[in-house]
Amino acid sequence: MFDLILVADWSAAARPTGKTPRKDAIWVCADLQGRQTVEYFPTRAQALAFIDDWLNRGHRTLLGFDFAMGFPSGFAETLTGEPTALSVWDWLARHVEDNADNSNNRFHVAETINRRFPGIGPLWGRPGTHDHPDLPDRGTDRRDHGVPDHRTVEGFTPSAQSVLKLFTTGSVGSQSLLGCAALSGLRARHASLRVWPQETGFEHVKDANLLVEIYPSLYEPADHPIKDAGQVIATARALRAASADWFTAPASQPDASRIATEEGWIFGVLPPSDCFALPPGTDWTPVDVALETLRSGTPCGMGRETISIYASPGRILAADLVATRANPPHANAAVDGWAFAHATLAPGGIPVVAGRSAAGQPFAGSIPPGHAVRILTGAEIPSDTDTVALQEDAHVSDDLLYLKAIPRIGANTRKAGEDVASGDPVLSAGTILRPGDIAVAIAAGHGSLSVRTRLKVGVLSTGDEITPPGSTTGIPDVNRPMLLAMLGQWGLEPVDLGHAPDEADRLAAILDKAGTDAILTSGGASAGDEDHLSRLMRDLGSVHHWRIAIKPGRPLMLGHWNDTPLFGLPGNPVAAFTCAALFARPALLQMAGAGWREPQAITVPAGFAKRKKAGRREVLRARLRGGQAEIFRSEGSGLVSGLSWAEGFVLLPDGAVTVEPGDPVHYIPFSELGLG
Ligand SMILES: Nc1nc2c(c(=O)[nH]1)N[C@H]1C(S)=C(S)[C@@H](COP(=O)(O)OP(=O)(O)OC[C@H]3O[C@@H](n4cnc5c(N)ncnc54)[C@H](O)[C@@H]3O)O[C@H]1N2
Ligand code: MOO
């Protein structure tokens, strides 16, 4: 269809990336009738000149860039008054300054954008060194700006990051701000270029030069020492093989024409036709619906207490913490050596004054110009000096100091407050205190902290067959000690509610007098004659969701006993563990005051093959070996040995999937679930 395919891996670098080809820079693959060349560019301007040159040659061209070419719903209209991606491109072209040496004003433009929106945001993320009051540092600092984080297409490419995030690992927002501005210019220079789907809709365009958004991570990189180069080569190959449904498949989305003009789409992402469909006749609750019920239904009602910093590991900070002193409190020496005022040194030996400055024992006198004084690591820099020479670079003879070389002004000194200034925010409310957080709290002047009182969570096992650990008869109680241990790792207060026999009255009495903030039960959650917990909850409790579209864990029951949230976990230990980690943990942490925390999955190649139907999410016990996710030998949810074998979960999506070895899958290490 196309004679020429151009694939660009874009970059938002603020400086030229250097003469030597390297990763995380701009790479362009040009594929002319199947013959590929790949080029590296130190600047955006050079890459655009190269692309201009190709476009001027008059080939039928498909041109792809790897950044979001549209923004989530509502963004364009608030910014430009028009709900189209192309209006945003033109707005950006008027505001972005992107110079030939890559220097640019993207963070300034981002602030200008944020000021047009209500609340705080929607854009976020900036390097710490920039002072941009209207561009929040963290995504969680934003509110009420009215823009969802993701475009529709990103629902089908879960590893794609939000275009609203401008900085740090994997962010694409900066690329998009600079890129969309550049594309506006490209369109102006090349009138024949049409943008799919923003201009064309989800149409199979056969006779135009097309500009599309691409996502190189969809393809296995070609063999090349630099991954970015391998990715543009692989993407160009994939585009050459694109079929008609690449253009038209997104038209199946309910509001396809709005998506096309406002949000755009990644060329090559095909929404599965039966995605999220449950088999007919079932009424299981999708995982995301159950999680949303929990997120909106488990507010924090915990009080506060002030405790010693020594008792604070794992506790949850109740209020934002502000530094009450600077760290370091005074300018001090970073090394053992000699302090002097740089500007006053004369050639030759430097006279040394008597005395010294040591940590905790500052030098008391004054140091005449051109003199030096002995100083030790951590000691205050005497007020009339500004530079420290390293002891190993100096020697003293006859009370004169000789330096091998004069260090630059300010060398080997630490400025007062260079770490934390008094009044700086250091930790935010909801932080679960880790050793590093405790360190900064102390450095910032705190010896005690206001934390949330601990959330008490009761754990109850049910079932007549359950016997105490160590028993030679019955089924030893795996779940209760396991769940109590999980709660402890999450910094909550586990309360052992013991074991209830299969009698509704006894079960109800135990639940009535639990006295905890939440309850986890295991067993009796499914529909059998002996499944007393589910019957009791339906009769006397309130059930919000029962039967979730997940394997393992389908019988999970979410509800309230009296006013206490109750998680009716399935009896099979693997299902109990999985449901506790994926459903109970975020809800309990939110109740405890730590906010809603979603575990972050990483995308890794599968070390296995598997096929699943649409209709439920599947959670496989997994671990990483050799950079690949391997899975446990069996999915049986009674196989407790797999819980010890595993170091994380592979999550397979609700829709149908076929996983082949090497395909990308989502892996959540147990450390992300607070179970490191
Ligand atoms: N008709 C249906 N049957 C089942 C369904 C269903 O939806 N309809 N779901 C199946 C699934 S999936 C699971 S998981 C189990 C969960 O059932 P229950 O929550 O009712 O659990 P129990 O029947 O009480 O126990 C299941 C299994 O786990 C053992 N168990 C229970 N507690 C413990 C414990 N504390 N420590 C160790 N092992 C425990 C128990 O002995 C059973 O072997 O239901 C399926 N059936
Ligand atoms: O939840 Mo059950 O353990 O899926 O078999």
TrEMBL record:
<keyword id="KW-0500">Molybdenum</keyword>
<feature type="domain" description="MoaB/Mog">
    <location>
        <begin position="458"/>
        <end position="590"/>
    </location>
</feature>
<dbReference type="InterPro" id="IPR036688">
    <property type="entry name" value="MoeA_C_domain_IV_sf"/>
</dbReference>
<comment type="function">
    <text>Catalyzes the insertion of molybdate into adenylated molybdopterin with the concomitant release of AMP.</text>
</comment>
<dbReference type="Pfam" id="PF00994">
    <property type="entry name" value="MoCF_biosynth"/>
</dbReference>
<dbReference type="InterPro" id="IPR038987">
    <property type="entry name" value="MoeA-like"/>
</dbReference>
<dbReference type="GO" id="GO:0005829">
    <property type="term" value="C:cytosol"/>
</dbReference>
<dbReference type="GO" id="GO:0046872">
    <property type="term" value="F:metal ion binding"/>
</dbReference>
<keyword id="KW-0460">Magnesium</keyword>
<comment type="pathway">
    <text>Cofactor biosynthesis; molybdopterin biosynthesis.</text>
</comment>
<comment type="similarity">
    <text>Belongs to the MoeA family.</text>
</comment>
<dbReference type="InterPro" id="IPR036135">
    <property type="entry name" value="MoeA_linker/N_sf"/>
</dbReference>
<feature type="region of interest" description="Disordered">
    <location>
        <begin position="121"/>
        <end position="144"/>
    </location>
</feature>
<keyword id="KW-0501">Molybdenum cofactor biosynthesis</keyword>
<dbReference type="Pfam" id="PF03453">
    <property type="entry name" value="MoeA_N"/>
</dbReference>
<dbReference type="InterPro" id="IPR036425">
    <property type="entry name" value="MoaB/Mog-like_dom_sf"/>
</dbReference>
<dbReference type="GO" id="GO:0061599">
    <property type="term" value="F:molybdopterin molybdotransferase activity"/>
</dbReference>
<keyword id="KW-0808">Transferase</keyword>
<feature type="compositionally biased region" description="Basic and acidic residues">
    <location>
        <begin position="128"/>
        <end position="144"/>
    </location>
</feature>
<dbReference type="Pfam" id="PF03454">
    <property type="entry name" value="MoeA_C"/>
</dbReference>
<protein>
    <recommendedName>
        <fullName>Molybdopterin molybdenumtransferase</fullName>
        <ecNumber>2.10.1.1</ecNumber>
    </recommendedName>
</protein>
<dbReference type="InterPro" id="IPR005110">
    <property type="entry name" value="MoeA_linker/N"/>
</dbReference>
<keyword id="KW-0479">Metal-binding</keyword>
<dbReference type="InterPro" id="IPR001453">
    <property type="entry name" value="MoaB/Mog_dom"/>
</dbReference>
<dbReference type="InterPro" id="IPR005111">
    <property type="entry name" value="MoeA_C_domain_IV"/>
</dbReference>
<dbReference type="GO" id="GO:0006777">
    <property type="term" value="P:Mo-molybdopterin cofactor biosynthetic process"/>
</dbReference>
